UniProtKB/TrEMBL annotation:
PANTHER family: NAD(P)H NITROREDUCTASE YDGI-RELATED, NITROREDUCTASE
Superkingdom, taxonomy of origin: Bacteria
One Pfam family recorded for the sequence: Nitroreductase
Family: Belongs to the nitroreductase family.
Domain Nitroreductase, residue spans: 8-194
Keywords assigned by UniProt, alphabetized: Flavoprotein, FMN, Oxidoreductase
Keyword Cell membrane (UniProt): no
Name listed for the protein in its UniProt record: Nitroreductase
Cofactor: FMN
């Protein structure tokens, strides 16, 4: 598989097989992704991989925890989201719930699905990615490059992922359970494992805005 194929095949997977990737495979994935571009070579990421009892300890703690109030870095999206982003987010949500036959008015079922984030959607491996809170906007961009590199490598190696901003809502609990050193804060979680191809929710293929909506070509013949 080449990079172009991995880009086209990578997507957010929300149902996994019970097969656990080997420790070597997970170690190699995390390490190889660190070849990602990083301004000044700061490499502003810190990663903790969890499986087995360590994963269970965290998900049990999250099940009993209260989310942090939204604000600052805890926002998944800006408040009062504007167009065209509001429509894109709305459609993505509706398309997702349609795959599992949850109508918009069934708030309880939607909240139950949302809560599956706290179990990494049943993935056998959970990755927690931290950033030093003293870092700035440019280093968060670098962190995004690392995440994308990791997810593309995972796709190339037959693994599936789902990046989850959800874990920032429980940052205090995650940092306590994992004993994250100060001043590192949770940036993302990533569910990692092997896709369950029979799960209806994995049939979702998010669309993309037309090229002309967000890009321009200038000065070309």
């Amino acid at each position: 598989m080449n990079v172009t194929q991995a880009m086209k095949e990578r997507r957010s997977v929300r149902a996994f097989l019970p097969k656990t990737p080997s420790a070597q495979a997970v170690h190699s994935l995390i390490a190889d992704a660190a070849q990602a571009a990083s301004g000044g070579n700061l490499q502003p990421w810190r990663v903790v991989a969890l499986a087995g009892h360590a994963l269970q300890e965290l998900t049990d703690a999250i099940a009993d925890a209260q989310p942090l109030p939204e604000g600052g870095n805890n926002y998944t999206y800006p408040p009062n989201l504007w167009e065209p982003y509001r429509t894109r987010r709305f459609k993505n949500g509706e398309d997702l719930y349609k795959t599992i036959d949850i109508p918009r008015e069934d708030k309880a079922a939607r909240l139950e699905q949302l809560a599956k984030n706290g179990r990494f959607f049943g993935a056998p491996v959970g990755l927690l990615v931290f950033a030093d809170e003293r870092m700035g906007y440019a280093q968060w961009v670098d962190l995004g490059i690392y995440l994308q590199s990791l997810m593309l490598l995972a796709t190339e190696r037959g693994l599936a992922t789902c990046a989850q901003g959800y874990w920032r809502r429980y940052g205090d609990t995650v940092e306590r359970v994992l004993k994250a050193p100060e001043p590192y804060k949770v940036a993302y979680g990533i569910a990692l494992g092997y896709e369950d191809p029979s799960a209806p929710i994995n049939s979702l293929r998010a669309d993309r805005a037309p090229f002309g909506d967000w890009a321009q070509m200038r000065g070309f013949d």
